[in-house]
Structures are given as C-alpha cells and as structure tokens.
Amino acid sequence: MMTNKPAVKRRADYKAPDFFIHNVDLTFDIRDGETFVTSVMQVKRNGRHKRPLVLDGNDLETLTVAMNKKYMSEGDGYKVGKNTLTVPTTENQFELKTEVRIVPEKNTQLSGLYKSGDMWCTQCESQGFRNITWFVDRPDNMASYKVKVISDYASPVLLSNGNMVGKGDTADGRHYTVWDDPAPKPSYLFALVAADLDYIENSFTTMSGRDVTLRIYSDKKDTDKLEFAMTSLKNAMRWDEVKYGREYELNSFNIVAVDYFNFGAMENRSLNIFNTSCVLAHPRTQSDATFARVEGVVGHEYFHHWTGNNVTLRDWPELTLKEGLTVFRDQSFSADMGSAPIVRIENVMELRAAQFKEDASPLAHPIRPDTYESIDNFYTSTVYRKGARVVDMFHTLLEPQGYRKATDLYFDRYTGKAVTCDDFVKCMEDASGYDLTQFKLWYSQAGTPTVNASWVHDPTTNKFTLKLKQTVPPTPGQDKKSPMVIPVKFGVVGPQGGDVALNADGDTEAVLVLDQESQSFEFDNIPQGSVPSILRNFSAPVILNAPYTDEQRRHLMVHDSDGFNQWEAGRQIILKEMLAQVDRAEAGEDIIVNPVVIESLRDMIGRPDMDKQLLALMLNTPGYGDMAQKRAVISPEALGRVDKAFTTAIRTALKDELLKLYHDNNTGETYRYDRESVGRRSLKNIALYYLCADDQVNDPAMTSLADAQYQTADNMTDRSAGIRALLRMNPDSPEARNALSDFYQTFRNDSTPLDSWFAMSVAGDKDQVIAKVKAMKQHPDFRNASPNRLRALISGVTGSSETYHNKDGSGYHFVADEVISQDKLNPHLAAGIVGLFADFRKLAPPWQEGMKEALLRIATQPELSSNVNDKLKKILGNDYPQRMVSVAAAPQNPAP
Questions:
Q1: pTM (2 decimals)?
Q2: Confidence class of residue 859 from pLDDT cuts 50, 70 and 90?
Q3: 301 is catalytic
Q4: Do the beta carbons of residue 322 and residue 307 sit within 8 Å?
Q5: Which CATH architecture group holds 17-196?
C-alpha cells in the first residue's frame, strides 16, 4: 500500500518563487513514439538567499543539463528527484539548458503534451507544463517564449503561441516553424499543436486599424462546421473593444479543434485549443443549444486574453479572479448577442442545478479557497458560476459606468502582472469610493445565503414595508457566518399590471442593499393589490423565500416586466405543488396535481404576446433535481413518481393546447439560427416532449408524429427531439430502433452526434440499462473513447433517476467501476465522476447505504490519485477509511 500523503496547501502561506525564468527558448523534436524537448532558460535569483534552483517536472527522462553552456552530471552538478530537478548554484543570473525525452502517445491524462488521434497537442493548465520539461511551473513565473517545432511532413501544421517568425525544411527531410511570443506569460498558457489539419481564415480590423489574421483549424472533414465559431470570434473581439476598451495586440489568433480534451476549451495566448463539442456548429450535426454553447465558449476563451492572460493569477487559489470574471463577461456577451432574459434564466438554471447543489454538499467551498490538496478539483461550478455572480454584483452595485471605470483601472494597473482577487476588489473600491470590506465575504464564505422576505401594506396610507432577513448556512469548516452584502433588485407590479413608481422621481426599480441580518425598506404611494417583484434579474446568488400566494405569483407571471421573475413566478407555483406531493408519494398514496398548475400553464400558452423562448422555458417545468435540492432527505423513488405524475397530468390536461402549439410552430422553414427560429423550435420540441412523455400511452398518433419529425428534420435540434421522443415512449418500438440505426449510419463519422448516439442507445427499463451500457463499451467506436464519449455513455445511467438510483445499487456500482478504471488513466476525469456522489448523505435508506458502499469500494483501492482521494475524504467525512492515503497522479509519460 502506498504511503505518501499530499500536503494541504494554504493560500496564506504563499511565497514568491526563489528564482524567476524571464526568457525561454524551446525546441520540440516530435517523432513517432517519442518527443525530445530542449529548453534554454534565462534564470534570475529572486532575493539574496542561497537556496538552490528547484524546477518542477513529472516523468521526464532527463538527457542533459547545462549551466552557462557547461554540461553537468547527475549527482555532481544536479539532482533528479521524484518530481523535481535541483541545481545548487551561487549564481544570481544564469542560463540553464535541459534536454528531456517524453512519450506523448502514452499520456492518457491529457495533461502536458499528448497525442489525440493523429494530432499532438497540449493542455498545460493548471500544472501540465511540468509534464513537458523542467520549469518553475507556477502562474507567477512569467516568461517570454520562443518556440521551434520540428516534425515530419505527416504533420504539416505546426503551431505555438505568438507570431510565427520562421519556417523551413530540415536537412533530414522534415520541417519546422518558429514562434515568438514576447509578452511574458505563465507556463500554463503555453500551447503547441502538430497535425494534419485544414482551416478557415478570416481577418479582423481592430479599433486602432490593425489587421489580425484569424484561423480556426480542424480535421478536414469538419471545416464546414467552423463558420459559426469564426463569426462568434469576430463578434467577441468587437464586443470587448466596445464594452471594455480591450484591443487584441498580436498579428494572429488561432483556434484548434481537438476530440480528446478534458475541458471545454483552453485560452492559451493566441492559440486556443477547443474540445470539438465547443467549436463545431452546423445545423446538420449540432443543436441550437450547441450553437449557443459555441458562441459563449468562443467568447469566453477570447475574453481570457485580457482577463487571465494579459492580467494573470498570482497563484491557483485565486482562480476565480480569471474564471469568475471571464464567465461574467461571456454571459454578458451572450446576452447582448441574443435575449438577455433568456440567457439569464438559462444561467440561473445551470447555477442552481450544479453550484447550489455543490454549496449544500460536503464539497462546499468559497469561490477563493483558503486550503486545497489538488488544485484540479477547484475547477468547479462555485469558482466559475458563483464567481461570475459575484462580479455581476459589482456591476449592479457600481452601475455600468462605475464598473467600467473600475475595470479600466484594473487593466491599467496590472497588465503584464500576476495578481490576486484583493487587487481586483481594490480597483472596484478605488474607482467607486465604496468600502467593500464586507462585500469580500463573498470570496471567503461558502454556502448559499437564504433571504426571507415579508411585507406589509397599509391601505390607509398606501405605505409598503418590505422586510428582508438573511441567513448563511454552516458549511464544512465554517460553522459561523457573518451577514453578506446582498444587492436585491426590487420593483412593484400594480394591481392592473405595469410597474409602480417607487419614489417622487418616478423610478420603477431600486437596488436594495441587504448588509445586515435583517432590514426594512419603506415605499410610499403603493396602490393596494400591488405585488412586490423581489430579486429581479436574479441580482444575487441566493435562495429567496417569499410568502406569495398562488394568485400573486400568477399576477407576476402575466404582468412582471422582469423576464426572469416572470419565469420564476411560474416555476415556483409548480415546484411548491410538486414538493407538497412528495410525502404522499413516500407513503405510497396517489399523487394529486393541483389544478393551479394546469391553469397557470394554460394561461401562458394562451398569451399571443408571449416570447416563444420564454414560454418554452416556462413549460420546461421543475423536475427531480429541483425537488431534491429542497428536501432534507431524498427518496429517489418518491421524487421520480412525482415528476412523472406531473408530466403525465400536464400531457393529459393540455394535450389539445400542446398539439396546437406543436403544429403552429412546425413551420417547415429551412433552418436558421436566429432568435425567432430558435424560439419556434424550442416551443415545438417542448410540446413534443410532453406529447410523447408517457411510456404507458403507446399512442400511435404520437409515435407517428415523433417519427415524422425525425425522418423529415433538416437539422439536429429537431432530429434529436424526434428520436428522443420515440425512445421515451418505447425504446424497443420498431420506429425507435430504426431511428437509432439510421442515426448511427448517418453520423458514425461525426464525433459529437456519435457521442449522443451512445447515450441514446442505452435507453430502456431501469433493470436493462447497465447491461446495455456494458455492451456498448465493447462497440468498435468506443475503443480508446474520448472523455466526451465516456461522459455521454455514463450519462445514460446517471441521467435516469430510476436507473442510477436503482435500489439494487447497480447504478452506483457502475459509476464506482468507472471511477476506479479511469483513475488509473485520467484522474481529472475520474474526480469529475466521483463528484456525482457528493450528496449521498441526503439520500434515504436504502439508497444511502448503497451509495456509501460504492464510495468505500473506491476509497479502499490500493492506489488512488490525489484528485479522487481529495474528494472522497470530503464526501465520506468521518466514514473515510483513515488507513488509506492518496498517491501521486498516474504517470503522464510512462516509459515505453
């Protein structure tokens, strides 16, 4: 049994590196089966200490080491440790040259330099560069890079960061390119690609009149799917100039699409590397949701050029400085490109589904953690999505003009530097004059605050008093919390509709700052029968409890001018009724669907002025996950029964309305990706979902409807909705099996739809799915599966509560098997999977015992990566088997 235990790292213990590397020349000699990396570094001692130079490295075969052009021998001039190269020296400034051998073909972790199909590419965030060569591999060590890439002509495209300054042939019939990136950057932003790729090219003229060459590379079969990403890139570059005054300063900007990638995309300076799922977009093979995702992710990675690259992090606990800020920027960009209320609703749905759940689990942590073992485990919804909402609150409190003044100051002060969240907040303070000391609790306190609202209206004076009270729940390591600064956007909807003036100036919306445990706010001249609209546009990441009646919520559904609260009112009506039925379901009683649910949805369907996308979102009613978050103890069986009963009731009561909705929006027009067309498809397909949702009906007319949509669709959005409808009704019907077969034959050479095919192919009875999944793992197209494909197949189990929470524990043990097998190959992926078990203590018996058994089976493996072990300790708590300790991550480049 391994005995090495990872040290807990503390943000407060930060120390600058003993040595800085200011310049580095890298030469990559890429050959089949091995790659030689030569590094020539200009090193400078930081301070007057006499400590040796210690460089980071993992599984590097060190061939030579030379200082100031004098070669040294191991044990005499340098020492190679397990993950370090130590060079004793009294020199304050010197040149160090190293040559190492690595094997990218055997790098299954996809961190560092690895081979994806026939492509060599890199992923260096957070600590992947040390898997390539010896280096001070931390974000506060910023260097200028010059890179030479040598390869056979089998890889005609050779890319790295910066501007290409040379290319040519070698004496042995190979070729090379040389890249210069003079602006200092941390090593996690290094990138390299060597492959046989095609590309599309365009150009962008910056606000100062410079022309930038834009290229997006992909496999040759995928170049027809790149135009939307190119349009999104140009839109993002212009948007950043207009909204933030940020201009791109290099001569070229490149994006490369990669199938095998742990993340969505990576913002390497001037050479973004993208998971194909986040860059390819074509109506035939990608859905409307994918188009929206591509636009957002392309924007996100480009915006990192300024928020993450030109201004970078001091150390990894500051991760939300770049990620929270950049997520806020990409969400704002998407809102400006489309519908702001729709984007906000979708963002909040994602936040609640992932981050609120995380905040309520043993994995809860602040957006800036004080301690960590594996930094890879902090690429979380909290750091990203909650971090974005924290920046959004700055934007709300300072107002757009003040926020822009603060970000201008941030870029002026810190371009070219590695900084902290405190530096960012200081710019907000200095630009606005506000004291943000209490606001900084958002960076240090974990947990989702709850705001309880109540109100009183005096009919004799028309004075309206709103009382708000906040509580912040205890979380692991943080039992006592202080009141937060919570901006609450507020309005009042009059008895006949329309916003009511809140003051003598006629303002109809106010930002109420709740910074005490309890506060009251008074408003005059509020007509009797008015309804308060609280937390408009979801102005803070909190849970709002308010004593609305059903009639008041229906009033907001119809009349609120705030699109988010209009949607929220309808959602809360339905969720309240669903939760009221869970106890009945647990007792085995019949589930009763209150008519208010049906009438509320009928009201919305009948409104001719209703935004189609908003109506589609309102019809996408709460489900299993929404109920689970509200329950102290989760009975998966009961929640599943309630979810199904409400869906069936809606289908039965509103069948005529849903059919009309379907046919009214099934226009047969040629595919376009615009707001109106997306709205029609969204509305049509949510109607189809309900019409085909009940697997007990076996309605021939609905089967024909879904089959016809699948057969005639000219786009993946409608095709996918059609086949999924068939699978919901009866996965073993001739129509469903024929559609699955046709889908495979049509898209077997397109990775993204083929991933979906794997997930769809395992649909069936809860007792059949695991067997189907195991069979699909033997499919020829699953060999050497990419992370995307593995996640898709796993989702076939975890996406069905009946299968995943089968009382026999088979779902849990299937997931445990995947964690154990993947941990030996790709610990980052394995740690992501084990997070599915985070809320096991909320489960009722026997589900809790079944999941605990699966967790302990993982924890008692003889060897575990620090990535997985770190999460297991938090999830299991006192049940964690203390005799176990974690081992280092699996080798990045194991010896051949």
A1: 0.97
A2: very high
A3: yes
A4: yes
A5: Sandwich (2.60)
